What does this fold into?
Amino acid sequence: MPFEYESLVGYLVVVGGRSISQPPPGALVEMSPRRAARGREADTFYALTMPSGATPAAADFYAGLARDAAAHYFDGSGSVTSGIRAALMMLNERLHEQNLREGRTLEAAMICGVLRGSDLFVGRVGGGLILLQKAGITQVFPADPEDDDQLYTPPLGVQPIPDVRMTRYTVTANTRLVFADPALLEQPLDETRAALGAEDIGAALAALREKVKRTVTLMLIEMTPPLTQPSYPARVGESSSAIRSGEAAGVATDPPPKSAAADKPTPVIVPRAARRDNPFKALGSGLAKRAARVVKLVSHLFERLIPVPKEGERSWLSSPAAAGVAVLLPVLLVAGVILLWVSGTGESEFDSCVDRSLTAADTARTIASGDLTGVVAAWNAVILVVDECSALREEPDAALDALWSEARSVLDRLQNIARRAQTPIYAFPNAQLTDVVLQGDDMYVLDSNNQQVYRVALTEDGLGVLAGSYEPIPAMRRGGRVINFDVGTLVDIAWADNGAGLPASNVITALDENGLLIACPPRFLQDCAAQQLPGVETWESPKTMQYWEGRLYVLDPGGNQIWRYDPSGGSFGSVPLEYFAGVTRPDITSAVDFAITSVGDIYLLLNTGVVARFRAGEQQDFAFTFPTTQTLTSPRAMYMNTNPIAQGLFFVEQETRTIYETTMAGTFISAYRADDETLYNSLNDLVVDSNLGLVYALSGNSIFAFRRDG
It folds into this structure.
């Protein structure tokens, strides 16, 4: 595999408002060593290990974790994701056992990344933040960094099995990547995005340093085409040539004397080709040794079969035929050795892997059906081994495909998974679709990346989009202007049937974080109205909104409240009322979504998978009834289907790429997954059309549809 990108790397370490002129001890960028496992020869490994817990360890501890993770990755085989996961699991197991044995608590948060070609794979354990900026678009992992449950997962060494969160990106030239601790979030994310857009990586580091007030640890990486030598101003006492050749560490320092050359922290380019041994050097050496042994053997046979002729006799070797053999034989020998080497290399490793997958499948088949946990674990192991084998060769293998299908079929049956073929409806460029509203044949989606609301018109069967119907709503975008109001960051969209508090009924509405409520009639999207909701100074972090009986409800987890706006003269002109009152209020700070029934009951979804039901602010009984193999652990959104022919609740869980359906009482109906699960990598929201029997799912920049009945 050719090397596509070099890595330009810089560091920023700030403690108590003061920069430290050293790279973080747990930061590492390593090219594949000469003896890397097959398949890893062209990989670049990145790591940032950060302190966690009350008692930080010595610097060597974090540096050692980074080195050991890289060594474990390059020594292993299989896919990139399995390699990253295996390295993090190895470190966690070692650290957890050490803590149990020595009665102490050593913890660490860690981010690992692997660049293979233009694919970047990232895994994290514990509190860690990843930002990737490409073509002016910044992606954040975790997707909702303000959600502490996503951001602060258990660090290494705390629990027996680590909670590894992974994602994948495609990089291009000038893509910038940040590994950082959560302290980076003390600055507004928009300011960090702007800093990453600086003219070069040195300027980006300097801009980030200006924003940091107290403490941060981060590593900034820029992907550059190979063999480039960008020129950066030297720091005090360093030459730019030293920086270009990779001899200087790229760290941010204290503010230097007034000098243009010292204003920018300087990164270090990590050239792939210069840091790697020639892969053909070892190949040539090995072939030479093999050829030498073969030639020695043939020479011995010649001495036995064709002895030295007696004195006066003509040797057979002096004939023209012997001369031809003498010329061709070495060529044939070397060609044969090369053929044997090429055909044999990796084949035995692949065959061994296939044998292991067959053995794992045989083991899984022999486990008693009553041992549900054991059966599930065994077939999951089969899938892991099959994935590892598939990574060893590009062409498909029928036996492996059959094993993989068998394993997934068994797991789906045991875990009540309903697979559904996905119909792509529409894909928006550079978008991250997070909210959806369906009204008749019109669908409205909120693109949080570009802060824009779009409308598309669906075909009669609901499985396509009418030509030319893709339409952005000008008034519903950040930076837009409605009447005399400037639109801020959009929070949510909702359909309003009853227009008691709006200029008209049957309108699509959008709410921004400053309390600006925008309403647009579906057939005249240029003719929008807006009103400023009063009392927004009491809001903390508005997340979503709902209408009921002409009233507007705004979910505010940060304020631990649902705010209710009553209509008055065609507007919501009065200060909001608190839905939860009294001394004993429920804790809804982890709420992610809510819905209101036709009789006014509120269903509130928490990010832990708990649903609470309230009537007039008082909590009512509600509990899920799920199979033992299924549980809702970290949902992102919910949808309440009030259609009489198919009433129920739907929940989106991105981590498991699953859509759950239950009755209104919480009884499990089904767990839907895509035939191709990668389509649900960024699953965010859904909506249901009961009349057509379709479920629409938002994932990344795309809308997908599937039939509930299969």
